[in-house]
Amino acid sequence: MASMNEFGNNLYSGKTSFPFVGRRRLWFVIAIALVVASALVPLLRPVQFSIEFTGGSQFTVLAPEDTDQSIATEAVQSVVPEAAAKVAIVNGTDVRVQTSQMSPEETQSVAGALAEAYEVPAEEVASSFIGPVWGESVTRQSLWGLAIFLALTFLILAIYFRTWKMSAAAIIGLLDVLVITVGVYALAGFEISPAAVIGFLTILAYSLYDTTVVFDKIRENTTEDGENSSRTFGESVNLAVNQTLIRSINTSVVAALPVGAILFIGSFWLGAETLTDISLSIFVGILVATYSTLFVAAPLYSLFREKEPQIIARDNRVLELRERARADV
User: Fold this and answer.
1) Which pairing describes strands 191-192 and 94-99: parallel, antiparallel, or unpaired?
2) Which residues of the chain have pLDDT under 70?
3) I need a labelling partner for 219 at 20 to 30 A (CA). Which of 20, 30, 142, 241 fits?
4) Residues 95, 87: Cα–Cα separation, whole Å
5) Which of these, 281, 279, 287, 285, lies nearest to 258 by C-alpha position?
6) DSSP line for 9-61
């Protein structure tokens, strides 16, 4: 414990420092590679959307003795040979079958075939239908929600920090989080459902919170430094990121542990499939959000500001004073 406290104190005082700003080219190359790889994932493994987005028919066989998924596939195709069925075990006991849109007659026949195949009463097979109009409405509202969130984020940060450059760096960091999280989601083969969209918005809010805390410390350092600072602007930004590093790690660990428990214990072990989509997006998003704040958003903000004439003049003065000090020695 003492060593951890000492490590945190060294980070805060600047005695120990990680080069978040100094090696930003490396971090940016890694970030771009991750974003490109995440964007290419859907080309190799197309993103699967849930029935709420695509529309279709859904059947749920309640607590059959045998939950073999192949039974459901064969039952559906015995009625509608060209139908593609997505079968999943829900809550560890029920079988959920999703298909493309069917006519009322086909829906009734498939429900009967499932009841016969799983040897359950007909009333133990529930069926529902989601039309394409409703799915389009969900998609449109999800995109509008994301657009409004990003627009309000940019505006609020610009007002709070009194500079659009912090807003721009934060928004780029949020987009980085979103693209990588969706890429991991697609790679895992999970369907994007309304619950997953809620998870995406949740991790964007978490990323925004983490970025705001770090940026607030950056503003404090760069404002207090003034013209008599012994550090360049980039060094002040890097110090602020190091000073908040332990807080960022602790917050991420505390947030990721319960979500990880839901994902790995609740979803994978206990079979609570309804929790998988939202827990996966939040778990991955928390980890990516912490990385993005430290290695993308903060160094990017420093890059945006270092080209300002006032910053250039101050940095040149700091570097000249250091050269004189070395010459005197």
Assistant:
1) unpaired
2) 1-4, 132-135, 224-228, 266-274, 329
3) 30
4) 7
5) 279
6) HHHHHTSS---TTTTHHHHHHHHHHHHHHHHHHHHHSPPEEPHHHH-EEEEEE
Q: Give the pLDDT confidence score for residue 191 in this predicted structure.
A: 77
Structure tokens at 209: 């919170």
Closest CA to 114 of 18, 182, 102, 302: 102
**Helix, coil or strand: residue 153:** helix
Q: What is the DSSP string of 158-192?
A: HHHHS-HHHHHHHHHHHHHHHHHHHHHHHHHT-EE
Tokens at 326, concatenated:
């070395």
Q: How many helices (H) and strands (E) does the chain have?
A: 13, 6
**Residue 204 has which token pair?**
């964007």
Host H or E run for residue 126: strand 125-130
Residue type, 305: R
What pLDDT score was predicted for residue 214? 92
For the entire predicted model, the pTM comes to: 0.79
